[in-house]
Amino acid sequence: MEKYSASCRLILCCNSSSKVTEAVRSRCLNVRVNAPTKEEIVKVLEFIGKKEGLQLPSEFAARIAEKSNRSLRRAILSFETCRVQQYPFTNNQAIQAMDWEEYVSEIASDIMKEQSPKRLFQVRGKIYELLINCIPPEVVLKRLLFELLKKLDSELKHEICHWAAYFEHRMHLGQKAIFHIEGTVGYFHWIAT
C-alpha cells in the first residue's frame, strides 16, 4: 500500500470498520456511507420499475422499503420476488421473507420444541447449512436471537441477550463461528430446562 501509493489507489468496502485491522485503517481515508433512507429506496424501486416497464404502486414500494430494514439489496431482491409471485402488483400484496430467514425461524421453533443433545445436533446441522450457503455468522446469530426472543417469557429475554452478545464478541475473536453460535444455542438449552 505504501510503496505504490503514488500510482495506485485501493478501495476497501466493508460493513463494519472495526473488522479492519488498525494497521490498515491508519493508512486509509475512512469514508462512512449511511444506509439509504426509506424514501431513497422507494425512488430506486420506482426507477427499476420504470426501466422494466412495471407499474409499481407507491404504497407497495413503501411497504417493501419498510420491510427491507434500510438494505437496498434486500429491497431489490424482495421486489424481484414479488414480481415473480404476482404481477400486476397490488397495494396489499404479501411480501415474502427471505428463504434463509424462514429457515432460521424454523431452527428457533426446533430449539423451542425440545431441549436435548439430539435436538442440539440437528440444529447444528441446520446452522452449518446456513453458513455453507454464505449467510454471515453474525447475521445468523442475530436473526436466531430475534426469533427466540419472540418465543420467550420476559424473564429469560435479558439473560439470553447477554449470552448472545457474549458469544458474538467471542465469535469475532475466534476462528470457527459455528462453535459460538452453537454455544449460544447450548446455553439457551441449559437455561430453558
Automatic annotation (TrEMBL):
The keyword Nucleotide-binding applies. InterPro entries: DNA_pol3_clamp-load_cplx_C, DNA_Rep/Repair_Clamp_Loader, P-loop_NTPase, RFC_lid. The keyword Amino-acid biosynthesis does not apply. It comes from the Eukaryota. Keywords: ATP-binding, DNA replication, Nucleotide-binding. Coiled coil: none annotated. One of its GO terms (biological process) is DNA replication. It holds the Pfam family RCF1-5-like_lid. One of its GO terms (molecular function) is ATP binding. Heterotetramer of subunits RFC2, RFC3, RFC4 and RFC5 that can form a complex with RFC1. May be involved in DNA replication and thus regulate cell proliferation. This is Replication factor C subunit 3. It comes from Ilex paraguariensis (yerba mate).
